[in-house]
Specification:
This protein is an alpha/beta fold. The protein has 5 helices and 5 strands, in the order E-H-E-H-E-H-E-H-E-H. It has one domain: Rossmann fold (3-Layer(aba) Sandwich), CATH 3.40.50.360. The protein is globular. Bound molecules: flavin mononucleotide.
Length: about 170
């Protein structure tokens, strides 16, 4: 499969660690590309609606090439730190910009990884999972997994051997 991973964190921390564990398992059998929104030049959605009647977004930045990659993927992995009880702005930026070609994202296989500084029974993970549940229903996604992890310091998740193995196994089992 072609797997696109959207990394919602700008720091080389827990979200990246989680992504790398997943990639370790998944890379043998799949073609993988990681999108790093903070390294791209993407303006936020203006809600102009022009995209609904023309080809893609009117912004002449990295929006359309990025959405091309997402639309061409068989699977999308959304990975994000928890920021203020929700996904990060970096990830939400990309999701909002997919509005112009939302229907091209129908029927994708999808996974989510969320890392937050509070224990995984806290409300934020449920809120984020529910938001993805709604998107999945709307776009007929095959939601393969939704994983939440608790880690605060940059290198904390890498010390969680159970989490590392779980993510590698998820990647292997794709
Ligand atoms: C702006 C900001 C807001 C945050 N808000 C929350 C929050 O609401 N709930 C939570 O559990 N952790 C919160 N955190 C902690 C991060 O989710 C946590 O440190 C995570 O491991 C960061 O992932 P990273 O290392 O990939 O950047 C916040 C961190 C930042 C920088």
């Amino acid at each position: 499969m072609k797997v696109i991973i959207i990394n919602g964190s700008a720091r080389k921390g827990n979200t990246l660690t989680a992504i790398e564990a997943f990639v370790k398992g998944a890379s043998e059998k799949n073609e993988i590309e990681i999108i790093e929104p903070d390294k791209l030049n993407i303006a936020p959605c203006k809600g102009c609606g022009a995209c609904q009647c023309s080809k893609g977004c009117v912004d002449k930045d990295d929006t359309n090439p990025t959405i091309d990659k997402i639309a061409a993927a068989d699977m999308i992995l959304f990975a994000t730190p928890v920021y203020w009880w929700g996904m990060s702005a970096q990830l939400k930026l990309i999701i909002d910009k997919c509005y112009c070609r939302g229907m091209q994202l129908k029927n994708k296989k999808v996974g989510t990884i969320v890392v937050g500084g509070s224990p995984v029974d806290s409300i934020q993970y449920e809120l984020i999972d529910k938001q993805f549940d709604c998107m999945a229903k709307y776009l007929s996604w095959d939601l393969l997994f939704q994983k939440s992890y608790y880690a605060t310091a940059k290198d904390e998740l890498s010390k969680n051997q159970d989490a590392m193995k779980e993510l590698e196994d998820i990647g292997k089992d794709l």
